[in-house]
Structure formats: C-alpha cells, structure tokens
Amino acid sequence: MRLLTHNMLSCNIKGVTNGFPLRLEVEKFVEKEVDFSAEFLRNIFPKIEWKALVDASRSMGYSQLPDEADSSMLDSDDFLKKFHHALLELHLEEGVLICPETGRRFPVNKGIPNMLLHEDEV
After folding, report:
1. Quick one: CA dihedral 25, 23, 66, 78, positive or negative?
2. How far apart are CA 28 and CA 75, in angstroms?
3. Inter-CA distances, 59 with 11, 36, 54, 55, 121, Å
4. What is the pTM of this model?
5. Per the domain annotation, does 9 fall within a domain?
6. Is 117 a member of any domain?
7. Domain range holding 104?
8. What is the CATH number of the domain that holds 56?
9. What would the pLDDT profile of 25-34 be if each residue is shown by its tens digit?
10. Biggest alpha carbon distance in the chain?
C-alpha cells in the first residue's frame, strides 16, 4: 500500500468523528521504483494532507520530507523527488492501520489493507 493510498483512507466506524489520519504500525515495507512525473506531483499536492504523509513516511524510516510544505516548493526538483519517493515508492507490505479515535486495528497483508467493519461498527 502506497502512502498515497494511506493519505486517502480514514476510519468509517459508526460514530467516529476523527478517523483520520490512521496511524501506521509497520512490520514490513518495501521500496518500489515508480516513474517520476512532476506534473502528477504538482496536481496531487493540494489533495495531500501533509502532516499525515510526513508522519507515515517517518514511521517507515524516511525522514527527508520537511515538517511543512507549500506550493512554492513544487518548483524545486529536490523537493519533488523526495515527495515522489515518500508518496509513491514507499509501500507498506505488512502492518496495521490504527483508528486515531477508537484504536481499532485494520491489518495490512501483502500490501492490501483490510478495512472491513464488523457488524456492530456499521
């Protein structure tokens, strides 16, 4: 699961008002090379919750992203490469996504998050 995907997921348990961002517990992650597209990064940047991306990438041991970012940084090739790596090339293979409000744990196996809710959570 790419961090791009993680940045779009939230906990949808009935009654949860603060289900984003899901915390990561990383058991295994891999780096997979992806073709670089500055245009894609510039277009997706406004949709990304920056702090959630920074925290998730740091949980995978990647600390190259700045604490804060704004659109003026999109002119920097160095910034775009670091953003690209964190967003698209870091993949959570095995671990857990944790709801920040309830503590509910959603397993990630072979890169696929299981976000299915129990009957009493719907």
Report:
1. positive
2. 33
3. 19, 23, 9, 6, 28
4. 0.94
5. yes
6. no
7. 3-112
8. 2.20.25.10
9. 999 999 999 9
10. 48
The number of folded domains in the chain is 1
Cis before 21 (ω within 30): yes
Name the residue with tokens 């993949």.
91
Structure tokens at 20: 């984003």
Q: Which two tokens stand for residue 51?
A: 């702090």
- C-alpha–C-alpha distance, residues 48 and 58, integer Å: 16
Residue with tokens 């953003």: 83
8 Å CB contact between 112 and 45: no
Task: Give me the residues of the chain with pLDDT under 50, please.
Answer: none
Provide the 3-class DSSP secondary structure of residue 21. coil
* Token pair 């744990």: residue: 105
Select from 87, 118, 106 the least CA-distant residue to 24. Answer: 106
